[in-house]
Amino acid sequence: MIVALTAAILTVLFIIVVLTLRQRSNYPPGPFPWPFIGNMIYFKKLSKKLGGQHFAFLELSKQYNSDIISLRLGAGDTIVVSDNKLIQEILSKKEFDGRPWNEFIKLRNMGMKSGITMNDGQDWKELRSWSVRALKNCGFAKREMMQLLLDELTLILDRLKDGGIQHIQTIIAPTVINVLWTLITGKRLSEDQRLQHFLDLMNRRSQIFDMSGGILSTFPWLRFLLPEKSGYRILVTLNNELKSLLMETINEHKQRYVKGKEEDFIDAFLQEMFTQKERGDKNSVFSDNNLIVTLIDLFIAGTRTTTATLEILFLQMANHQDVQRKLHEEIDVVIGPNRLPNLDDRVKMPFTEAVLMETQRMWLVTPVIGPRRVLDDTTLGGYTIPKNVTVLMNIHHNNMSRELFPEPEQFKPERHLNENGTYRMDENVILFGKGKRRCPGEALARSALFLLFVGVMQKYSLLPVPGEKSIKAEFTSGLIISPKPYNMLIVPR
Q: Fewest CB atoms less than 10 Å from the CB: which of 117, 342, 349, 355?
């Protein structure tokens, strides 16, 4: 009996192996995907050893001498692309516009295939297009947003006024989320324990999961056996608390809604929702589910990425005093010591723009972007890519390419300036994606980075703590990379 059972298991495994190898004809190279476990365990170990998912992808690209590699990191196949031209192709071709629907994404979306981030199809196109327009109407990339950011900057400067050795991350963390929340809901999310609790949850979430969905995508049953270590409990807790806050906010808007007096994103959505209901449209994208998940998308997108980028910017200024001196000189000439910066200053501050670009090129907080789902059988780089394969893009590898950026490991803002000293937007640097899935919060992120970074640097010099030559740059990895907590000496200018 045991012999027969063993023979049957081996036969099944042999068939799986044969079918797998047959399916991989003209498929990108990569480690053999073992039945049931794929490459997840091996890849996790490699990522931990090298310090991040993006470094592991880079190592595998070197091993297989290919800018396209294949892995099994969940229930289905995944390909990872590092080449600049191929990434540009993915970002522009409709065949790569889909999103996978794995266990992590199901949990993240509260089981609803809705919203503008982890969704696809015609409904997604309509909702995303409308959301981008609505965000602009609510103040994105407008004077209203700049004023909200300057109000937050004033609070930051007030907390920093005494200088000294401080932990700057805790001071800037609530800033962007408060601006985003005001534009979306019409009111500021006060800095109480609830906000700090959300920030802590989001931070833990970003460290446990990665763009492949983490271990839950491969072994979804682990949520029952290891709810804490698998990250399941964090997602459920975050979902429940976030949904409670959002529903409370949505219901408040419904109770006070007056047609023609829309003041924020939720009001604009409700206007569309009520209008469609009056017309009898039962298949409208303007539903409670789409509103909740879209708000979650915006909340998640605006919570950590911009804050983490600011943390890296301030750290690098402390570690590169020569760059900081040039930055101070430009700020003093263009803005002076008295008034706050504004967005009109950007065109007159090419070195500042170059610092922002170079910092993000080297330490992009989203070094791997995606995931994309292939909508139809297609080809990429000469390989056959089947329908429903998941695609990840190693932006770190692209932004650190020696072919595109000579001496890529050197921090040289000047590489983004022309011979006459004007700022040169380098299309080879990918920061916010491109195409139909370009980050909808780009306008807020770019504005926040400029105003908050320049506003702090205008008033202060940043230094390592006394006795140290530099701040040790250590990073957490996961959905985003961010600096581990650090202290710096803040000196009023």
A: 342
